[in-house]
Amino acid sequence: MAIENQRVSKNESVTIRRRLRNAIAGVAAFALAACASTGGPLGLSRDQEKAIGEQQHPQILAQFGGEVEDAKLRAYVEGIAKRLIAAGDHPADPIVVTTLDSPVVNAFALPGHVYVTRGLLSLANSEAELAGVLGHELGHVYARHTARRVSRSNVTGIGAVIVGILTGSEQGMQLANQLGQVYLLKYSRGQEYESDLIGVRLLAKANYDPTAQADFLQTLGRWTDVEMRAAGQNSRPPEFLSTHPNSADRVRRAAAEAQAVAAAGAVSSERSRATYMSMINGMLYGDDPVKQGFIRNGNEFIHPGMGLAFTAPAEFKLANTPSAVVGRTQNGGQMQFSGGASNETPAAIIEGQISKSLGVNLAPARNFTVNGRSGAVGTARAQTQNGPLDVQAFVISWEGTTKYIFLWVTPANDTARLQRGVNDTIASLRKINPGSVQVPNADHINVVAVGARDTAASLAAKTTFPNAKEERFIVINGLLDASDIRVGQSVKLVR
Fold it and tell me: Is residue 435 classed exposed, middle or buried when 0-12, 13-18 and 19+ CB atoms within 10 A define those classes?
């Protein structure tokens, strides 16, 4: 996420940064449903856990673009999960498995629910690898980690606890997934390891190759590293490590558990790679430009489905994430655009929820009108060890109860220079006629067979990856290096 990637070093700077992170992820949704974290030694009774899953499921669908439209793909993923569930110790427990239409590489669990995104499906290279991910998330459900973490949390009004296998987006600005009062809280290393071990054992019991989980974790770590380097950053995104142990450590532990399972008795080597590749062939990759919007010229966001657009200052490089559009400058300026439904006035939202989430007082908010729409703006200055930051929150009323939010954080010594661009961006928020927009073609996963003259470089050149084509091609296909391809082998091309 953009705010968390700002380079500050001391305790109070980190505190402000975390508040900004939480606020940026949270202000996009205005639902404030809460449930008490009481009942039983784990903090929540089983009925309360079940209620969390049922209450949050519709919000998660909305947050992640709903389910994928391909009914065969949904049924395929559900079938893998059912195979794992049937082989486990809780075959009668009702668990709903949902494949989300999101490009983010992510999987997570709530009580009674397991979620996986098509972004994660694009990174896996066999049915067994996907089964390893699903087994890990089933482990969180079976071990009741949600209840255990709520019982240790000091957060009140919590709606749910979401965990997932998170990587940074291509621009390294992946948002934490928060829905209103839903907080992304860190699983302990022990809980993550426990779920990994449960996943490996479920693989073996369901007659999958138990080493597949470690292979996917390794691919996940390599993919994150590629994207971070391509984005010009030298380290793994903080949000990845904030929720999961070091992936190299997890790879070693998962591999060791797979060896232990194999030593205890005969295990299958089934991967079902061919079946898996045929199922994801043609799957959408990345954003759906119509449903999820797209970035044009680096600083213009257009969303045909929502019928709106805005243009940010040229020096703000935008990234489209599932929860928001985020952007930043080389000098540390950062912004976010998000939206949601609220019956409150723009000023009340700023003075209430946004101020509270940020931990800064944005009151009194000032009302304004832009392009015939009412709005409000609140400003504040936050002191950090690296100098003061200026925070500006704009909330604009749209159709019905819909509100849109622009949140800007800029170094105080750069605010005056950027202010005109900030104001111009607010003024640029406009309705568009979807039929008049030239929508770019969406990328898809194309599965092809390696030909006699093909090389990793020649195949990578056929992809639409924006940079690091060969390295991305190698990692997304789970190859060791450029020489690890053979004639006739099925590989994924993004184009």
Answer: exposed
203 and 89 Cβ atoms separated by less than 8 Å? no
Q: What is the dihedral of CA 462, 463, 469, 470, to 10 degrees?
A: -50
Domains annotated on the chain, with CATH: 31-284 (no CATH), 294-436 (3.40.1000.10), 443-494 (3.10.350.10)
Strand partners, 411: 389
Per the CB < 8 A criterion, the answer to whether 178 and 184 are in contact is: yes
* pLDDT tens string 265-285: 767 889 999 999 999 999 999
pLDDT, position 371: 94
Peptide bond into 210 cis (omega under 30): no
| Token pair 């009925």: residue | 47
**256 near 201, Cβ under 8 Å?**
no
Pairing mode, strands 96-100 and 113-117: parallel
Prediction pTM value: 0.76
Compute the distance between CA of residue 105 and CA of residue 26 in angstroms, rounded to an integer: 20
**What is the reported pLDDT for 470?**
98
Taking Cα atoms as reference points, which of 214, 217, 215, 202 lies closest to residue 82?
Answer: 202
